[in-house]
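Colleagues,

For the teaching module next term, I've prepared a clean inverse folding example: a structure given as tokens, and then the sequence designed for it. I'd like students to try predicting residues themselves before seeing the answer, so please don't circulate the second half yet.
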């Protein structure tokens, strides 16, 4: 994949592989950093499979207002849903970014599940990515400890983190996760929509069955199995 445009300079690289199209659906994901690590902003097109990376920016030692502005610009340019790492300082950044962006706190089980799902998506071919040297190297040498161990001996690559955040939203367009409402400019923040599901007979009788929200099983004198909404 040859980029349409490419910029490389001191602690800064930017690639654009595809201009936005009106019928395209895009997700923007950002992993924030400033000093030692890199801020990585990825734009993924998700209305086709495999998903493709259409824009990529990796920067270091830039002021946060500048990096936040870049994030907001690509959200607006691609009219995209967005997600960012709101752990630590990222939670402060949340006050200054486009309202279409959702925040994700990368801690505990949520973090592990997100990364596991991304690894599975890559292995199953949900992505087709250009061979950007920093992106390729980060994925090639990422160890299991980098993914799941928070000790000082390991570090989750910023490039992997950004792509994993993107997949956390993109999976909803792949038949892999729950349905999602994609917002456009001026709409509310995107929200997950939980599908209605009637419990099975076994679930209705088992004390270990998973909770089904919004549904109650009410027995009638004739036990006709009526299911009513609450």
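(Answer key — instructors only)
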């Amino acid at each position: 994949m040859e980029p349409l445009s490419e910029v490389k300079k001191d602690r800064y690289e930017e690639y654009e592989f595809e201009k936005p199209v009106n019928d395209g659906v895009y997700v923007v994901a950002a992993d924030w950093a400033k000093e030692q690590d890199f801020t990585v902003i990825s734009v993924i097109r998700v209305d086709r499979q495999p998903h493709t990376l259409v824009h990529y920016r990796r920067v270091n030692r830039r002021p946060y207002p500048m990096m936040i502005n870049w994030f907001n610009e690509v959200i607006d340019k691609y009219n995209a849903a967005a997600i960012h790492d709101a752990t630590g300082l990222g939670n402060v950044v949340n006050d200054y970014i486009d309202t279409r962006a959702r925040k994700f706190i990368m801690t505990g089980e949520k973090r592990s599940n997100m990364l596991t799902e991304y690894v599975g998506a890559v292995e199953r071919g949900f992505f087709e990515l250009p061979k950007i040297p920093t992106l390729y190297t980060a994925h090639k040498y990422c160890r299991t400890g980098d993914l799941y161990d928070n000790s000082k001996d390991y570090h989750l690559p910023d490039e992997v983190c950004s792509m994993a955040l993107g997949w956390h939203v993109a999976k909803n367009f792949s038949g892999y996760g729950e349905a999602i409402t994609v917002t456009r400019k001026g709409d509310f923040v995107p929200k997950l929509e939980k599908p209605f599901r009637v419990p099975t007979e076994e679930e209705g009788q088992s004390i270990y069955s998973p909770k089904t929200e919004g549904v109650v099983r009410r027995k009638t004198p004739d036990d006709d199995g009526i299911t009513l909404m609450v």
